[in-house]
Structures are given as structure tokens and as C-alpha cells.
Amino acid sequence: MKRLGNVFTACLGTFALLLCLYSVEGEYCKVNLCHNGGTCVTGVGEDPFICICADGFGGDTCNLTEIGPCNPNPCKNDGSCEVISPTRRGDVFNEYICRCQPGFEGMHCQINENDCAKQPCKNGGSCRDLDGDYACQCPSPYVGKQCQLRCISLLGMEGGAIVESQISASSVHYGIMGLQRWGPELARLNNQGVVNAWTSATHDRNPWIEINMQKKMRLTGIITQGASRMGTAEYIKAFKVASSFDGNNYVTYKADGQRRDKVFVGNADNDSTKTNLFDPPIIAQYIRIIPVVCRKACTLRMELVGCELNVYSNTAGCSEPLGMKSRLISDAQLSASSTYRTWGIDTFTWHPQFARLDKAGKTNAWSPAHNNRSEWIQVDLEKTKRLTGIITQGAKDFGVVQFVSVFKVAYSNDGELWSTVKDEKTGNDQLFQGNIDNNAHKKNVFEPPFFARYVRVLPWEWHERITLRMELLGCDD
Ligand SMILES: *[C@@H]1O[C@H](CO)[C@@H](O)[C@H](O)[C@H]1NC(C)=O
Ligand SMILES: *[C@@H]1O[C@H](CO)[C@@H](O)[C@H](O)[C@H]1NC(C)=O
Ligand SMILES: *[C@@H]1O[C@H](CO)[C@@H](O)[C@H](O)[C@H]1NC(C)=O
Questions:
Q1: Is the beta carbon of 119 within 6 A of some atom in ligand 1?
Q2: Fold match between domain 155-308 and domain 320-475
Q3: 420 CB less than 6 Å from ligand 1?
Q4: Which pairs are disulfide-linked (predicted)?
Q5: pLDDT tens, 27-77?
Q6: Which of 115, 136, 141 is nearest to 126 (CA)?
Q7: N or C: which end of the chain has fewer CB within 10 A?
């Protein structure tokens, strides 16, 4: 009897309560869920039942009235329907054409074109075809939607644009009775002189040197060099790299798809330079070099390679859909606090993987098991991105209009420590105005944008049930 509440809602007003209770067990068509004389059929395909509608009616439960060939819209994937001649021929409406969105083709826009066919990715980028879009995976140091930009500026260790106060270290080695200071400010590529590099103190078991770039930058590589001290070559043979946005929480660099920290191969003598690329690039304000294996001592001269983040100078230039609709964001990247099942039926589970903007079908959105303010849906973007906005949309559960009318947004870089997007003026959690119906797109912008790998939407107020389809907007840097 656990399902009583749900079944009652589904049947109320149309059928006798007794009949409705019967429908729970066994055949779903014992109670005809189809309106307007529609015929209920069980066991067809994946759905427990489908409705075959009487003339002039459409929709999942036949309670939509057909008004001409374009209503309900027969075109898939957001194609728009145009009536050519509104006459009816026999039982079939076929006097319309579908105008497809870019990336789709076919009579009903049902065919997803190969968006990679025109080879949009430059400079060796590899292309992935998405629903109506493509994504380029760029080899470092190339960036941008089509890998068209090169991010290879020398950031100023050698040139001096990075000043002394931006460079710090875990410890410093003092040579010759404390007279020679091998300080971090000396760790500049090709630095000359008798004392010309940073060396960590002999007793330092966890040495590091850190550069504070003073703002978030995109780093695509590092050039390292050792030095010679009293006729002996000293250098770092292997090192790790860690980075941080705030100087408190650090993430150790890992190569794409790898779980273990990346160990970079460093130098092999006192003077040659060694270049390592960060692929993918690091977006951070603080970058830390952590020696792992040193020859004689951990001694370093270095340069950072990268570029400013303002490739997209404003929010307007950084508002690409990040891939809810196009499926660049895979199902595995989506999770939620819980999921709801209509009438307790597994086939009608409202998975977080369904929360894709404009998703079609009977169950076509995310809905949680409970309707309260502890529920959330999460997107793991797999790498840090700049987030500039969100589009939300409700859905219908068998004709019932449902949507989230107010929500909060939280974000995180590790999936554990979360920050809520704040209202700039009041400092309180920002309440975003969501939807007012089941279908219209509602867009909200994040001002200022934020950087994050994980994003959560926290429903705050809703109509009927918490029900959400969405898209995140932003760009790679
Ligand atoms: C350091 O490098 C220079 C140039 O390669 C070389 O001539 C010199 O012998 C090296 N010194 C030591 C101590 O290895
Ligand atoms: C939300 O509902 C669940 C299940 O009923 C409950 O465990 C949780 O404490 C509720 N949270 C709030 C904030 O009411
Ligand atoms: C369709 O039926 C549902 C109940 O199953 C009802 O809530 C909804 O308002 C109906 N829609 C229309 C357009 O009649």
C-alpha cells in the first residue's frame, strides 16, 4: 500500500478510486490512463504501456488536442514545424515540413548530422560529434573552441614581470657559513652569478617553491633548469606540480584521465633547460613546484609558460552550452540526492541523467524522491571551467505541469568543499528565479562568473514537484 498516494494522484477526478488501486499491481492498462477514448496497450517496447489516441488527439495520454499538422509538433530536436497546406487527406496529416536546428536533418529532424565532418578542430585537435554540436580536444598549448589560439607567453620569471614578492618557498639554503642565500627570488631561468638559483634547506623533507600570479591564469608549460654550486651540478630530476585558486586549497596536477599525481621528468645537468607541457592546461592563481627527486640538492631556475584568461574578454563571449543538451556531459557526470518514480514504476524513474535541456519522452527530467530543500542535482565538469550562466526548464509528468521556481547554485573544486553563489550586494545566498511553466527556457547569468569543476543546483521553491531540465553556460577557461 506504499504507492497509494501516488496512484491516487494519478487517477483522481477521472476514475473510481477502487479501480485506481487495482491498477498498481499487474497490468497498467486495467485502468485506462489514456484520455479522450484512447486505447491503452501494455508491453510495447520499454514502456509499461502506451496510448493509441483517437482521431484529433495526441500526447502521451491523449489529452492534447491536435490543431492542424504542427500541433503537437512532430519535429524532433527543436525543429520548427511549418504548415504548407492545412488540408487533411484521409487519416494522415502530412502537409508540413520541419525546419531543423543546425546539426540535425531528416524529415523530422531525427538524424543527428556528423558535426565533425567539416573538420572544425585546428592544430591537431581531435573532434567529438555531439547532438547538434562538436567538441575539440586541443593538445597543449592550443586552446579555444576550435584549438585556434596558442597559449605560449613566457610569464616573467626570466623577464622580471614576476616580482620577488610573488615567489616564495618552503625553505632556503644558506651556504658558506650563512653568507650565500639561495632564495626563491633567484629561481629565474638563465639567472647568472655565483649564487643564481633557489635551493631548499638540507633538512627540508617536503620542499616546494610557489609563484603567485596575482590573478587566475592559464598555464600550459614549465621550463626548468638546475645550477652549479661550488663546482657541483645540483638539480631537480623529478617533480610534481600543485595549483590553487586561493592559496589555501591545493590540487596536485594529474594528466587527463589519470588518478595518480603526474610526476614530471626534470633536469639532468646544471645548465640545460627542460620543457614540460601541461596537457590539459592548469587554470590557477598559485602554482607550486614540488621536487620529488633531487641531485645533491633541490636547486631550481625556471620559467612559466601560459597566457591570460581573457581570450574571452567578457561574459557574452563565454556562454557556450557546456553539454547537457549536446551530451558532451556524459551520464556518468550527473548525479543527484535522490530520484522519483512515477507510480513507483521503475520505467518512469526521473534520473539526474534526464535533466538535459529539451529532453523529450515520458520521463524527461530529473525529479527527486522528496520535495524539500535538501535535494540537489550535480554536474561534474571533469575539469575546471568558467561558469557564466544556467538555463532551466520544467517538464510534465503525465500532463501535470511541474517546475522549479526558485533555486540556489553551489560549486566546488573537489566535490567536498562547497560554496554557494552569493548575491554581490547583500552577501546572502543568491536566489535565482526559475521557471513559470513546464517548457519555457529561463536563463540566469552568474555575475561575476565563477570557476569550478563541480556545480550543484539546489531547488528552493517549486510547483507540484521538483522537476528540472537544464543547461550550464560557460567556457573552458
Ligand atoms: C655546467 O654546465 C656547463 C655547460 O653545459 C658545463 O660546461 C659545466 O662543466 C657544468 N658544470 C658542472 C659542475 O657540471
Ligand atoms: C527532506 O526529506 C527527507 C525525507 O523525508 C528527510 O530525510 C530530510 O530530513 C528532509 N530535509 C528537510 C530539510 O526537510
Ligand atoms: C491531461 O491530463 C492530466 C491528468 O492526467 C491533467 O492534469 C492535465 O491538465 C491534462 N491536460 C490537458 C491539456 O487537458
A1: no
A2: yes
A3: no
A4: 34-51, 53-62, 100-109, 138-147
A5: 677 777 788 888 787 765 666 777 777 777 877 788 887 777 787 788 888
A6: 136
A7: N
